[in-house]
Amino acid sequence: METIKQSGPTDAPASDAAGHVYRKITLRLIPFLFACYVLNYIDRVNISFASLQFRQDLGISAAAYGFGVGIFFVGYILFEIPSNLLMQRIGARRTMMRIMVLWGLVSMSTMFVTSATQFYVVRALLGIAEAGFFPGVVFYLTLWFPSAMRGRIMAMFVLAIAVSGVIGGPVSGLIMSQMADFGGLKGWQWLFLIEGIPPVLVGIMAYFYLDDGPEQAKWLNAEEKRFVVGNLAIEAASRESSKHGTFWTAIRDPRLYAAAIAWFTVAWCGSVINYFSPTIIRNSGVSDTLMVGLLSAIPYAAGALGMVLINRHSDLKLERRWHYACCVFLAAAAIAALPSVAQNWKLAIGLLAILSVGYLGSVALFWSIPTAYLSKKASAGSIALISSIGQCGGLTAPNIIGWTQQATGDFALGFYIIALGMVLGTVIMLIGLPARLLRERYIGHAPAERSHVESRIEHFPPRAKPASEAAT
Which Gene3D superfamilies match (predicted)? Predict the structure, then answer.
């Protein structure tokens, strides 16, 4: 991996100002995007809690549930690339408002489902509505932050998965247990109604709160805007050798598909923790719905802590690939071990916690790898393409687990297949995207970089002169 460090003590003022600017951007953007992703994940995976009741109410089998969970990704996959390419043209404000309002409305409509067919239809529509949200945010962050910061920035954003698990489980369990039959509605119907309203309101807010890029940010002054844009211009110049002039040239690069295969298996991993952990906890001996929700928060809390520490270490070392690989291998080992503790809820939750550390760590780390390789012009479409191919894992994994569970009576075979696929996908990524292809740099303007870009950008703040120069 190519790393460009600051040139020495004379760059300290620049470094201090850089820290101030990026803290300002982080405090402005990340809390809001974080809240959006919490709502996104709750509405995507609350089906795992609703299934504890509605499967019996509607007579839906394990295989039918797995198919319904997976079909969400059909619409998601088909519309991710168009959504990101459109976002590149119309901006983040309109894109985020459209996505969040639509998914909130579709999520609420799930309360009216009365058959397996209707369940399939509403899940497919939810996938279409949500398409482009995650890759859109990944691309949006590349418009603000240099690659050396993206590990910790993505960790802050992906922390929303953990928070949604920590609060989503107990809240979902509480709604379903306390509001069952209130007003003539089942507990799972109230779940979809109550948790579908916030995304609509926050989506409308996104239109007024977000900016399409640094140039439009009224909360940055002119010098700060030049600094942010200039820092990204340096990175863009360092990747000119990748020859990714546009998305259409990038899609012919086999390395893109090595990354997509890796993301495919991360989606497999996510299916286990997001869609089957409540069932795993219940089958291990916990029957009370509220207690299942409370216990399901523990793995996500452990995962959040592990993810933050791993991504911080990755940023400090400016090493992505092996940090990512270790996370995936850890998660795969936990998945493979889960069937052996199926009747012990304490050990099951312990393994789910290890799985969560590996899963959340790999999700946050993964996107710092292709974004350190792709050119700016190719990023939006390429990120969406990788995400789309990868989300096929979310389509196939629930079906694999559901069908094998129905055929064998337990999760073991499905989990072994998932764990093996994760290891193979990671090996393919390590081979297909060697470290020498990644272009990352520490924050600051080193002299070696200035020579070929300073004619195109303005530097903020000005580099302090050494005392010997000042004297002359």
Answer: MFS general substrate transporter like domains
For residue 259, count CB atoms less than 10 angstroms from its CB and return exposed for 0-12, middle for 13-18, buried for 19 or more.
Answer: buried
Cα(411)–Cα(366) distance, integer angstroms: 27
Whether 172 contacts 191, CB under 8 Å? yes
Cα(399)–Cα(69) distance, integer angstroms:
8
The C-alpha angle with vertex 384 and arms to 383 and 390, in degrees rounded to 5, equals 90
Two tokens at 164?
């949604």
DSSP code for 428: H
Q: Is the peptide bond before 461 cis (omega within 30 degrees of 0)?
A: yes
* Cβ-contact 445, 14 below 8 angstroms: yes
Q: pLDDT tens digit string along 106-136?
A: 999 988 988 888 989 998 999 899 888 888 8
Rounded to 10°, the helix 222-238/12-45 angle is 80
Tokens of 265: 């298996």
- Residue type, position 422, single letter: M
Specify the DSSP class assigned to residue 145: S
Of 47, 52, 43, nearest to 68 by C-alpha is 47
Fold type of domain 9-457: Growth Hormone; Chain: A; (1.20.1250)
Boundaries of every domain in the chain: 9-457
The DSSP output letter for 371 is G
Q: How many CB atoms lie within 10 A of CB 208?
A: 8
- Grouping H, G, I as helix, E, B as strand and the rest as coil, residue 374 is coil
Q: Report the C-alpha gap between 365 and 421 in whole angstroms.
A: 19
Which pLDDT score, from 0 to 100, does residue 466 have?
41
431, burial (CB in 10 Å: exposed 0-12, middle 13-18, buried 19+): exposed
The packing angle between helices 133-142 and 150-178, to 10°, is: 150
How far apart (Å, rounded) are the C-alpha atoms in residues 43 and 106? Answer: 10
Contact 373, 439 (CB under 8 A): yes
**List of residues 6+ apart from 427 with CB closer than 8 A:** none
Which residues, including other chains, have CB under 8 Å from residue 104's CB and lie 6 or more apart?
Answer: 39, 43, 196, 197, 198, 199, 200, 203
How many angstroms separate the Cα of 214 from the Cα of each of 35, 84, 202, 269, 378? 21, 18, 22, 35, 19
pTM: 0.68
Both tokens assigned to 436:
């020498």
pLDDT tens for each residue of 262-276 = 989 898 888 888 778
Contact 238, 3 (CB under 8 A): no
- Contact (CB, 8 A) for 61 and 406: yes
* Angle (CA) 288 291 297, round 5°: 145
**Structure tokens given for 226:** 């030049």
